[in-house]
């Protein structure tokens, strides 16, 4: 059951997360029912997430389900996403994370199918990810392997996205919108970097320039200085 | 003539199949009038299918035609798809199939023009297809060659899609929606796998992991445990 | 001046040609104001064509101009397309042609920038083009060089499209819609064939199969047996 | 403060620049909030530009801000784009420039990540850019390095676009619409030329043909002979 004190924020997050799935569609990161967004309920051991196998056209706020941090269904009429255990693991082990996104976006998945991290040759990538986007292990769905792979790869890393080998992308952020932005930017730089390397070697960005770009973007970009 | 007892279900299938062609357009699997979806009429030796050479904009439920399992027109004012014989052959020889889709989708057709099956290096492909997507023979339109090629390749295979050499894709499913999903997923993994291999060798997924992923997806994914 | 007897058909063709430009946009064959469609006025030495440098959003039937077969403006308030001379040359020398389309569509232009015809490794290409799509010469705009290059390449060829070296595509048909279809199919097979060849050699379709496919498609496909 | 005499034109430019950002979205040149358009206020040391980190969906005319030629905010409630210093530098040093556009469009960025100019093998590129699209230096955001790199590369060059190494594209024009057109055409030829070179060497266009094409397009194309 959702505690009385959480009901209003849960309603808002259901609306927000339903709408954010539309961004995955808009940017072409998902096909059919693949891909999912979740958001932690601040101050509660709960998160909201997409139900399993539901079409994006049918994804109203009402369809979004609520789970506890063990991934068990707390509220909602549908079964939670089959990736719920991975989201739950991230929320349990990374208290700073408020949103998680999973996609099989084309170019990022392609890097993952060769088990290669994405090298940093574009300033937009230095800005958002602070360097290469790392590769996580191959992990089978069904237990905590995927969640553990995500957390072990991203802990202490600047990158907000990880390529899970032979699988796709998980991205994180302080809230669900930031995690969606990371998913969008990850595919964008995965694509540009792939295309660049098709015709010859990349020119890498020197590490101190990467550091300076990352630092500036995290602190100066946007309307408030806050990361968005 | 459509038997009285089939009329209601035929009307429903015409609506459904007309709408499902919209998914081929949405996912960019077809251009101009190429591509077609059909659905078996359960309990009758009939199926509904797209008429030949009709634009997707004009594809109302009324335009969808009804054929018998020899591919002969039973109801409708337009000539059936030029691929009708292939659909009919599949329905005659694969009683478990309730829907068939044919497209020339770009990446799948590209694998077929090199006469290569698509290797399995992505979990989404293990989930949906249970391994590689196989290659069928080159077959000329006009007799049962295409239908026979589809059935011989898919019989006893886990994959719901076959690349017909130098041609395109046929996909099957328990109903038309599942066959459309297979067509969409086939192009998606054909694209990601192509892009992955452009920059180096793929890392294959070990066979027992493929088996486990396929098994789980067929039984656990979605809202009912039923494959969708 | 438009002869009285031609006014009604000119009005219809203006509507039709304005609408057909929308197909170039829908299939991604054009950016900004590049690309143009024209249609012969049957029984008159006239054709209608896009005005020069006008945005597709602003392309109403009223904006379409009428030219004679020397490419001189006969009716309309705007200057005709800068490719008008090439269209006019085709109409003067190929009486069977009722529509002409020009685009810089991406994949077709890419083949043209390497001065390579597109080989025939897909049945859809055999159907529509009856074999490879040929390469025309490099020709500078400003005189009859482009028109001559188109006519010399397509005369006696089955293909309804020609890649003009370092430039783009011209396609023809018995009417403007058929020429637009050829432009759409040309880009589609240019893309699939390009992607196929990225990862290895193509498997060619044997010539007698190409002949049989072309013959069948021209005579059997669609609702009337007429080519569409 | 905006001088009284500039208020009307500033209002018009805000409308125009807000709308022109929609063209960046339409042609797929930008994702999320990346990319920006600015326009000089004729006769005043001012320009209008996109605010920093604002979504394209929220980009009304009211959101567009006004800066002086040092890049300082003169009017508007939001912080100006983080690329404002580069735009300002261009306006200070290139008096003929009335519009500036910046994007990370995919194919152009890919050439920049290999530090390669785009060679001229397509007539559309000769028309618009008069030859290759040049490469500017790697430059860190935060001072005048980017602006200086743009101006030093484009001064005395025919091209209206420059690839900034490891970064993206800046394009210029007599007004903002022309600069947006240059950004659109830059990505279009970056893509076609990339794809052409994937399968073999390009056939270059002879220099005197490039000169003739550029000259003709600048003087004859469109409705007025004026460049558009």
Query: Sheet bearing the most strands of chain A, described?
Result: 8 strands, mixed
Span between termini of chain A: 32 Å
Name the quaternary structure.
homotetramer
* Fraction of residues in H or I helices of chain A: 40-55%
Order of helices and strands of chain A: HEEEEHEHHEHEEHH
Spatially, the strands of the biggest sheet of chain A line up as: 4-3-2-1-5-8-7-6
Approximately what portion of the residues of chain A adopt beta-strand conformation?
5-15%
Enzyme class (chains A, B, C, D): isomerase
Domain Class II aldolase/adducin N-terminal (chains A, B, C, D): 15-194
Cofactor (chains A, B, C, D): Zn(2+)
InterPro entries (chains A, B, C, D): Aldolase_class_II_sugar_metab (IPR050197), Aldolase_II/adducin_N (IPR001303), Aldolase_II/adducin_N_sf (IPR036409)
